[in-house]
């Protein structure tokens, strides 16, 4: 079998010409084996009809295999010629033929240096896209955190509004002054509690 690379033909046909020839070869070989089996069975039937025949089945099988090797050798020789003709004249694309999907390369030729530069540019753009995607994901996470904080702040504002309404209901108009008053009273209570603890310690002593 030919081992010449035929990449352009593979692009056009969708299969390698060598694979096609191999399948043809195997199909012909299978047919040859089947024919030899039929021939052998016919010979055996003819010999069974002759009572005076002294040829055994083993001799017939040996002769059949010998004939099969001869036919296979002849077939291989003929197939090599057929393969050469098919690969050169049928399954090959001439060098002056351009496939429709490759006409863009003819209209916009590109050197190897330019192609490498384009590949480098594509790699940089892909890296930038990945970085922007990561930054966008980080921003979305931060926005989600801000939504959670905003929801908590709204709860705190609602709590203070409710507290202010309670203060108004009990005769205290200014919530800020009420909060300062409560803070001062807490400090006084803490001072009194500290004095009580000191006195209790002295009494115990």
Could you outline the blueprint of secondary structure elements for this entry?
Blueprint: H1 7-13, H2 17-48, H3 57-90, H4 103-107, H5 112-169, H6 175-204
Helix pairs in contact: 2-3
Describe the structure.
The chain is an all-alpha fold and 205 residues long. It has three domains: 93 residues, no CATH class; 31 residues; 31 residues. Helix content is 81%, strand content 0%. The chain contains six helices and no strands. The longest helix has 58 residues. The radius of gyration is 49 Å and the shape is elongated. The model has no long low-confidence stretch (mean pLDDT 81).
Instruction: Quote the distance from N terminus to C terminus.
Output: 113 Å
Overall, the morphology is elongated
Strand-pairing-aware structural class: mainly alpha
- Tally of domains: 3
How many DSSP-defined strands?
Answer: 0
Helix content: over 70%
- Count of individual helical segments: 6
Portion in strands:
under 5%
Strand and helix order: HHHHHH
Radius of gyration: 49 Å
Main sheet makeup: none
Unreliable runs: none
The overall pLDDT average reads 81
Give a nutshell description of this structure.
This is Protein MIS12 homolog. The chain is mainly alpha-helical.
